[in-house]
Amino acid sequence: MDSTISSRIILGVNKIMERYDKEVTNLAEAKINRAYIIKDVKTNDEELKNFLFTLGCYEGETVTVLSVLSENYVVSVKDARYSIDKDLAEAIIV
Amino acid sequence: MKVALTGNPNSGKTTLFNAITGKIERVGNWAGVTIEKKEGKVKKSLNKGNTSITAVDLPGAYSMSPFTSEENVTSDFVKNENPDIIINIVDATNLSRSLFFATQLLELGIPVVVALNKSDLNKKKGIAINVEALSQRLGCSVVETISTDGNHNGLEELISTAIEIKGKRQKAPFDSSAVDMADKSAIEASDRKRFEFVKSIVSEVENRKVSSNRQTKQDAIDRVLAHKWFGIPIFAVVMWAVFSISQTHLGPLLADTLVGWIDGFYGWAEGLLGEGVSPVLSSILLDGIIGGVGAVIGFLPLIMVLFFLLALLEDCGYMARVAAVMDRFFKRVGLSGKSIIPIIIGTGCAIPGIMATRTIKNERQRRTTAMLTPFIPCGAKLPVIALFAGVFFNDAAWVGTTMYFVGIAFIILGALIVVRITGEKNAKSFFIMELPEYRFPSIKRATISMFSRAKAFIIKAGTIILLCNAVVQLMQTFNWQFQVVTEGAADASILASIASPFAILLIPLGFGVWQLAAAAITGFIAKENVVGTLAVVYSITNFINTEELALVEGASDVASVMGLSSVAALAYLMFNLFTPPCFAAIGAMNSEMENKKWLWSGIAFQFATGYVASFITYQIGTLLTTGAFGSGFLPGFIVVAVIVVYVAYLMRRGDKRATEKLALSI
């Protein structure tokens, strides 16, 4: 009995996740292990934007979230891994 | 001939620099270890030419347009100081990012040779790079290097290539000279094209078996080490292991042996001087110099073990993960996760710790970290802790541990206070840090780092500390008329008369005697001096003893000579640990804060913290142990109250500014 209930819950959660998935707008909502194309980097901090650019993090480039750890996101850009915080992840529009 | 070493952060510039010059500059496995340029002559064994070559190691940069202040150093140097050759160190595992900077360097009109570093890692990761094709596309020489390897590392070829290309100019593969540098969007468009160009090269010369955005073992390790809940306990265990090994297990074990030798030397020197030498001279030589310096040197093994372990920690790639773990906590008190790195380095020595704050982009966060880093007990404070733990607390391990926790508590508290005083409690800042690959730490590098620290420590003991001890001994031996003070009348000595006025201020803290005041004062020159001076003023030469019996016996002796209660001893320890660090560290604070107001406020804050902490420890402790407050409670209480009220006032004022700012931004 328990197993069917739990599997139903998992199914339900998956459904919610899928719906949620369609509305991914920034990196903080991104699904793990899926490559996204960056649409925009939303920040008033021009310097930060330029810095991200030199790392290869700018519109049109791909970015992948590898793990979410303690409110930090491990992302892969070009061939490097970075740890970024939630604020920055939210600023990267995909 | 001048060769500049440039490249992305953590591409291995300093490791390569150390390998070609034989120097031992600090290296570590995270981005931003090097913050200043360093120069060195290339070894004769690598340099087959006739002219000597000066290599200049520069901080890492991602591009010619700087983001952090240490990146500035790099672009300024290659633009203004006309190096003859640029060696561009490219991380072979990350061509697609590194070549952006490389193509910029190729445009400068200075001959460039690319060192394709970490090429050993490529084989492991199944990445193949066609070096010839890369060289052709870039229009410059490319040499594969493994700078961590002792042999077959490609460094000889790298240097001979550098000599060959001197004076030659390459044609830039990507030319942006036609771009109008005043037009922002034009620059942006050009930079985009540059990245496109880099991509086309990479797709041509690089063959990857596994795409870099796939999960690897590294990511699995990250999920444990930087886990939301396990991250902090793991970090605590790691640091606890570092300190317990260096301070309660291996360190003291080695120290015992060393102290035995020093005692032997003392006895030998005593015998050598014989009876005929004047007692004044012999006391200066034996107690002042051998005793004082010996007391400090005795703690050398503790410091060496600590530095060895810290070097292992810095080498394996864990530091960047700790920064990520700590970010969410540090953010709450207005710091950055990166602030943890200076603090960890500061457990070794506050000076490199304070200098490591330079990678923190946000000015307030950087300055606050530089101001608070000295609260974590450094290697030089270890002897002081070990001495007091041994003498007054039966070598209890909790004393040392508590001091680190108190240090951390002060850092957090200090950060909270500073962020409110500056009125930036609503300020937002972003965190981004590259996560380097984990690797097995190199025992060789850790050993080198340990011995270079040991050397610096011995030099310090043989110069500054020796001099201070000799001066202290002289000042204690003579009175103002330059007569030898008679036994039992030490209060008439020069030292006593200078230190006594300060001692009055320390009465509310429980240690208002001139001997302890003198030791605290010499502590500002170098913290090791606290132990040295205490050894001299109380004529004690041995603080660590081998046999347990001797320790108990010796310990009670030392305690009775000093005439301090355990509570007062703890207060004295706190005072020494949490007041401003040595002058050298204050100098480092000055250069990193770049602001006199911050510097003086920082020093005042440190004094206030040390005084208040010490006062509370002594008075509350005395109240608990004896049932009454200690001496000088009222005047001390007034001082502490004034400090607290003033800080509270500053915080209120800052809050008001913060609300105004918030109102403005909405």
Descriptive terms for the model:
heterodimer; A: 94 residues; alpha+beta; four-stranded antiparallel beta sheet; 3 helices; 6 strands; B: 666 residues; Rossmann fold; 2 domains; 26 helices; 9 strands; 6% strand; globular
Account of the 3D structure:
The complex is a heterodimer of chains A (94) and B (666). With 94 residues, chain A is of the alpha+beta class. In chain A, 39% of the residues lie in helices and 29% in strands. Chain A has three helices and six strands. Chain A has a four-stranded antiparallel sheet with strand order 1-3-4-5. In chain A, strands 2-6 form a two-stranded antiparallel ribbon. The longest helix of chain A has 21 residues. In chain A, 39% of the residues are buried. Chain B has two domains: 207 residues, P-loop containing nucleotide triphosphate hydrolases (Rossmann fold, 3-Layer(aba) Sandwich), CATH 3.40.50.300; 433 residues, no CATH class. A six-stranded mixed sheet of chain B has the order 2-3-1-4-5-7, with helices on both faces. A two-stranded antiparallel sheet of chain B has the order 6-8. Chain B has 666 residues and is an alpha/beta fold. The longest helix of chain B is centred in the middle third of the chain and has 43 residues. Classes of the chains: A alpha+beta (94), B alpha/beta (666). The interface between A and B is large, with 35 and 42 residues. Strand 5 of chain A pairs antiparallel with strand 9 of chain B.
